[in-house]
Design a protein that fits this description.
250 residues, single chain, seven-stranded mixed beta sheet, 14% strand, alpha/beta, Glycerol-3-phosphate (1)-acyltransferase, 7 strands
């Protein structure tokens, strides 16, 4: 590694650190002003989350050169979304464009400051990840508690963040939810993990994409649906990642 490249990497690391610090500072400041009203109005909770996520997308572009783009038709209303999950950034992108979103998430998130409060406020479904039938029951119980004017329900079929290039099986929970939605589900592909890796400081410049794909129709057997879901999401996510990698080398 040459001296010039070392300097560039150090500069990117410093910019990334500055971005992360301001991201959490803005979260704290917004929470200070928004939370008292959000306690009284769920609509304000949605508004605060949406504004914050839009700010993170904008500041990522300004500070580290990480642009983000949403492709495809954005689902509205009580529809099921099954998405590839590579980093915290794909959650932020979802919340910046989807009206009244809620997520199936691990129970531990409810204990996080600020994030846990707003996850509860918008009706996210918390489950004990890795506990099989217990998690499924928690998920179905959460589904039964529908909020007024319910928006899309988002589940990550692999159950956790999966870095680019890593294989992880798709869990049956997505299929069980699919049976409860007569109009099927919207699969989502992404390449965000290339730029926003798990447990790392560096945020890399480029174009992070979240792509809403054509709806998978309802009424299939679970096994058939799960196979189609995995094939569609993985193939399109790989295409997005390969396209970005080819662009960065050009």
């Amino acid at each position: 590694m040459g001296e010039e490249e070392t300097d560039l990497n150090a500069f990117l690391w410093l910019r990334s650190l500055a971005f992360i610090i301001q991201m959490y500072l803005v979260m704290a400041v917004m929470a200070l002003f928004v939370t008292p009203i959000a306690l009284l109005s769920r609509e304000v909770s949605y508004w605060g989350i949406r504004m914050y996520c839009r700010w993170v997308r904008l500041s990522a572009h300004m500070i580290v050169g990480l642009k983000s783009e949403v492709r495809g038709e954005i689902p509205q209303g009580p529809v099921l979304i099954c998405a590839k999950h590579q980093s915290f950034f794909d959650i932020l992108i979802f919340c910046s464009v989807i009206d009244r979103p809620r997520f199936v998430m691990k129970k531990q998130i409810l204990k996080l400051p600020i994030v846990g409060f707003y996850a509860h406020r918008i009706g996210c479904i918390a489950v004990d990840r890795g506990k099989g039938s217990v998690a499924v029951r928690q998920m179905l119980d959460g589904m039964a508690k529908r909020l007024p004017k319910a928006g899309p329900l988002i589940i990550y079929p692999q159950g956790t963040r999966v870095p680019p290039g890593v294989s992880k099986r798709y869990r049956i929970g997505a299929g069980i939810l699919y049976e409860s939605f007569s109009d099927g589900c919207v699969p989502v592909a992404t390449n965000v993990g290339i730029f926003w890796p798990k447990a790392a400081i560096v945020r890399r410049p480029g174009l992070a994409v979240v792509e809403f794909l054509p709806r998978i129709s309802g009424g299939q057997e679970i096994d058939s649906f799960m196979q189609e879901l995995e094939t569609v999401i993985e193939s399109h996510s790989n295409r997005l990642m390969e396209s970005e990698q080819a662009t960065s080398k050009a």
